[in-house]
Amino acid sequence: MHTRSGNVVAQAFHYFGHLTFLSAAAAGRREGSECCMELVCPAGSFPALKAAVDNGAGAVYFGFRGATNARQFIGLNFDEAKAAKGIRYARDRGVRVLCAINTYPQPQGWAQWQRAVDMAADLGVDALIAADMGVLGYAAERHPSLALHLSVQGSATNYEALNYYQRQFGIKRAVLPRVLSLAQVEHVAKHSPVELEVFAFGSLCIMVEGRCYLSSYLTDESPNTCGACSPAKAVRWQETEQGLESRLNEVLIDRYGADEKAGYPTLCKGRFDVEGNLYHALEEPTSLNTLELIPQLRRIGIQAVKIEGRQRSPAYVAQVTRIWREALDAAARDPDNFQPQPAWNSSLSELSEGTTTTIGAYHRSWQ
Amino acid sequence: MNLTLGPILYFWPKQDVFNFYAEMADLPLDTVYLGETVCSKRRELKLDHWLELAKDLRACGKRVVLSTLALLEAESELKMLRRICNNGELLVEANDMAAVQLLSEQGLPFVTGPSINIYNLRVLKQLYNSGMRRWVMPVELGAETLQQLLQQADEARLAELETEVFAYGCLPLAYAARCFTARYRNVPKDNCEFCCIEYPDGIPVRSQEGAELFTLNGIQTLSGEHYNLEHELPRMQQIGVDLVRLSPQREGMAEVVKRFDQRLRGEAPDSIALVNSQQCNGYWYGKPGMDWLESSS
Q1: Residues A264 and A300 in one domain
Q2: Least packed by Cβ within 10 Å: which of A164, A171, B30, B36?
Q3: Chain A within 8 Å of B293 (Cβ-Cβ)?
């Protein structure tokens, strides 16, 4: 772990003007719960990283090019030189850098994942976000001073699972899958042996992450094997007499009428036929937005909130980060009277899939 | 190689479950997995009922393993998990890392089900050292990866490790917070009226062009087509697979078992249709799971 020099802290303070934010970064778990949650933002590219850092991220997360991370998109992610540049940029401004190596290597790919872990350690990232027990074990053994976070792809939804990862690999933090209600998150937090990070905003995985093989069932790639869900290479759009069709590996995912807005054919958000009923059988195209939950998440001791979207543009990252920074700061100043500003929510909705948002599984009735 | 009967993934009335296992008891199955793996609200059978079934099946010469829930969210679910892990007699199949934690802490040997992510040797070794003595390969992996893994496992001398492959049935593909059966019925999950019991083989989901895509089963999503590796048994044997898992379906399960048994013994199987559904085997060949490829073995 790299500790920040006083000089850098002073710079960062000057840069952001957020004393609470800085003290949170320096604070241990105890103060963290009642102080400020770390805002963890996506960096799919150097411009996105810069956008996150410049707009108030507490930490940024990135992955290397290729299949080692769960957001493998053409043209995205970092090589070693870009990563070094990004880390320097963030650290000079007091922002932590986390590296995601969170897919599941198979025998033929193991050496590549091992190299990625070594590279992250050599670059001096603040923590490694990993899911596979092989990757976690290798990192713990080979780089004992490298902090480990259990990725959401690690699929740990309860504290007994967290106990295993903590005892076997010494993980410091875990990212919870987007399947728990707020009461369940609170229960996990009460018994968790490690810090917890939850998803705050962005695309909504409806299935428990790390154990969803729907994508590899229809295409040959899944989040676990390649870091890809409903991969772009398998997508085909076609104008037909019945409307615009989106296909994934030739399977019809949705068909849009002239007045309907078409969305990316993520397979769990398609319109399918169930016993003669045509509807979004699994989930509507919508995004997660938990601004309204900030006070509760703080109260129950969540240490960090994550913004999804390494595949998003720097402009998107800038706007979402800025709004969340404002909201977290407002909640820190006056937690009892915190209300999300309507302007924040409307801006976030405009940025969202289907231009609608939900608090998802956090609210029991959604389930 | 021997045949195993996976846990019933659907919600069946208690008497149907007892009748089903009474029929299975006389069939050439080495191991029978018992218990609820999908939804903790399905309580037609209590733990004591499963233990009673276990006793009957063991009396018929079957090995019995108690399967556990894949997605654990509530303390009540952890409590049930602890009861199963503390049963004191039967081997347990861990379908979540919580079960791995509880079993390894007690120093008990265990089985890992298909929802435990084992993709490489390091994970096999890690879990072997924690007490895993049998593992079911994740369904999205195929023959080539398995072959490499088992060669490595051999070199690493994981001598007591048994390998099981999910070889027949709708594939368990995903778990969610949301109950898709309740959503289909337009009722809230917390007031679901246990409607899964009306769909003993789940609810088919088709594309708008009628392709069988998925099967809804409460919070679980299964494949729409039936995975069938009956033609791959020689390759499995050659790779070093020990156990071949057949996943229960409401009708015609005895025929499925008999057919796989005939294949295992090198006999030509009776020409009976296994199920009125498309079949797939793509995962085994490293292709999209829904694909069907002619056997190369």
Answers
A1: no
A2: B30
A3: no
What does the domain layout of chain B look like in residue ranges?
2-285
Assess B288–A contact: CB distance below 8 Å, yes or no: yes
Q: How far apart are CA A241 and CA A183, in angstroms?
A: 48
Q: Is the predicted pLDDT of residue A73 greater than 50, yes or no? A: yes
A218–B288 CB contact, under 8 Å? yes
Contact assignment for B288 to A219 by CB distance below 8 Å: yes
Please report the ipTM that was assigned to this predicted complex: 0.97
CATH number among 3.30.1360.40, 2.60.40.790, 3.20.20.70, 3.90.550.10, domain B2-285: 3.20.20.70
State whether B97 and A160 contact (CB < 8 Å). yes
Count each helix (H run) and each strand (E run) in chain B, helices first: 9, 12
Q: What is the pLDDT of residue B276?
A: 66
Same domain for A357 and A273:
no
Residue with tokens 């709004």: A323
pLDDT tens-digit series, residues A238-283? 999 999 999 999 999 999 999 998 989 999 999 999 999 999 999 9
Say what the pLDDT of residue A12 is: 32
State whether A307 and A258 are in the same domain. Answer: no
- From B120, which residue of chain A is nearest by alpha-carbon distance? A106
Provide the sign of the torsion angle of the four alpha carbons A255, A258, A264, A269, taken in this order.
negative
- Whether B179 and chain A come into contact, CB under 8 Å, resolves to yes
Dihedral angle, C-alpha B224, B230, B231, B233, nearest 10 ° = 130
Same domain as A291, residue A270: no
Mean pLDDT across chain A: 89
Q: How far is B106 from chain A (nearest CA, A)?
A: 13
Q: What's the domain count of chain A? A: 2
Q: Do A90 and A193 lie in a common domain?
A: yes
Question: Which residue range is the domain that position A266 belongs to?
Answer: 229-279
Distance CA(B19)–CA(A71), nearest Å, equals 47
Count Cβ neighbours within 10 Å for each residue of A158-193 and write b for 16 or more, e otherwise.
bbbbbbbbbebbebbbbbbbbbbbbebbbbbbeebe
